[in-house]
Structures are given as C-alpha cells and as structure tokens.
Amino acid sequence: MLTDLHVHLRPDAHPSEPEQFFTAKNAERYREAATGRGIAELGVSEHIHRFEQALDVWQHPFWRFSARDDLDAYCAFVREETDLRLGIEADFIPGREDRMAELLEARDWDYVIGSVHFLADRGVDAEYNETGTNWDVWQGARNADEVWTRYFETLAECASSGLYDLLAHPDLVKVWGPARPMPERDLRYFYEPAVQAIADAGIAVELSTAGLRKPVGELYPARTFLEMVADAGNPVTLSSDAHTPDHLGYGYAEALDLLREVGITELATFERRTRRQIPIEQADAERVHRHGDTPPPAIDPETGRPG
Q: Does the domain formed by 2-291 have CATH 3.20.20.140?
C-alpha cells in the first residue's frame, strides 16, 4: 500500500479562496489522481498559516497576509465531505510551543506535520514575500555552515517538541540547489543533532518527492540522512507535498527505489494521531514504475518560487 499524507487542496497563489478548493468536487479530483497512481492512504494537510486562528500563535507578516480561512471550517469540511485523512502542516516556531499546542490540541486531527520554514523571522525556502520584501534567510548570512547549523538545530527542536507526528521535507535548507552555497564539510556533521533528536523522540520522518520539483532536483531528505533515520529505527512516511492533483505521486518510482535500497519495507500512516505501519506492496511499487512521471514545473507558476 502507498501513501500520500502531505497534500494541499489549494495552490500557494493569493488570492486563493477556500470556496474554490475546499469542495467535495476538488477533493474527488485528488482522490481520482491518487487512485490512478496506486495511492490508497490519502490525507490533506493545509498550511497552518492559511488560517486566522494561527495568528494566536505568531504574528509574522507573512502569516498576517495569509491567514484568511477558518480552521474549524476546514476540519469540518474534511471530516464531513471527504474520505481523506485530516492533517495540518504546522510550522515549528521556537518560543511559541505552548500556543501551538493549544491550537492543535483543540482539534481532532489524524496527524500533525511539523515543518521548519523559518529561522527566526527569515524564510528558508522563500526569497520575497508577496509585497516584495526580501526575507531570504541567506541574506546577510556569513556562510553556509551558519545557515545549515541553525536549520538542523531548529529541526532537532521541532522533533523534540512533542507537537508533531511526523517531520516534513527534513532537509529543506537545500531547496535552492546550486543557487546557494553548500557547506564544505561532511553533511552528516549537520544532520547528526537532528537525527539524534528524531531517534530520541521516535517521530516519523517524511520522504518527500517535492524536492524533485524544486531547483535542487532531489528527494527530501538526502540518501545519507534517510540512511541515518533507518539505522535509528524511526518510521518513515511517503508524500509528494502536492499542491495540485498532478503532483500526487510524482517521483514515487525514484522514492520507492531509495526506500528499498536503504532497507525500508513499511510506511507509517495515522488515524486519530495513532500511528500504524503498512507494508509497501510490490504490486503497487511496480504499478508506480510502469506509470512514469510527467514532471510538473520546477517552481510553482502561481508564486514564482518554491515552497
């Protein structure tokens, strides 16, 4: 059985009103695309910054710009009008853990995805916001070691926080590929604090194909990181971080090859925040390989940037 738990029913573009995308018809488009690629476990996990209630957690300008929807209406829609798993992608904001916990604990999720998109108030995977302000974390950074160290230290805090069921795109810091400097030392130096925290927490880690659509052109995480996670015995999820139905299952053939090569034979999935392991069925893997992929654009055309 294959999964795709990190899925967005709406694109990143603004304006993007919920009544256009939070509909049974749109959800069925995703379900049909998933079925065509052998994906049985399908869940939706909208960005938390889309919702007005998120402003009780953080008042970052991007969140104030984005927070237009009602979180409880979203939950009710998924539960009452679809057969999708109900998830949320919630940024880890250091110092705001209690506020985030209060927001999350008040809703009946199947799973909560933790992600690191910000280091302090600077964006890891966004150069400019919609008003043209540059908030790229690389602006003013002294070197690659500084950014990579801060990123993986924050990821370690995210894993240890107890807020999340799984970690999204765990080496997102590489998103820009050759457009940003890379550390010269062995990348395991940066991975190790995060992997240790992941092992201690027992949290699931996402293998995401979204990086194949981004400038870096690689799976998240890198093979070495995934090997370290597998060696630690942590569960792994498989997702596409889709923002359109065409993204569902994209790159799964490459991801399944990597999972097999590092010895992972099961995928984690969730219901009411209870994790279970399901085997990767050979028949489903072969079906994905036969299907092939039509690459989506490397950068979302609505925004002109990765995300």
A: yes
- Decide: residue 144, CB within 10 A, 0-12 exposed, 13-18 middle, 19+ buried: middle
Q: Is the peptide bond before 15 cis (omega within 30 degrees of 0)?
A: yes
Q: Which CA distances in Å does 111 have to 38, 205, 207, 237, 271?
A: 21, 13, 16, 12, 7
Q: Which of 220-234, 254-268, 276-290 is predicted least confidently?
A: 276-290
In this structure, are strands 85-91 and 39-47 parallel, antiparallel, or unpaired? Answer: parallel
Within 8 A by CB and 6+ apart from 8, the residues are 44, 45, 46, 47, 89, 241, 242, 243
Per-domain residue ranges of the chain: 2-291
pTM of the predicted model as reported, rounded to 2 decimal places: 0.92
- Contact call for residues 215 and 306 (beta carbons, < 8 A): yes
* Of the candidates 129, 13, 17, 130, the residue with the CA atom closest to the CA atom of residue 70: 17
- 32 vs 13, more confident: 32
**Residue with token string 């008003």:** 131
CA distance 34 to 41: 9
- pLDDT in the model for residue 245: 96
Residue 186 CA to residue 192 CA, distance in Å, equals 11
> What is d(CA 275, CA 121) in angstroms, rounded to the nearest whole number?
32
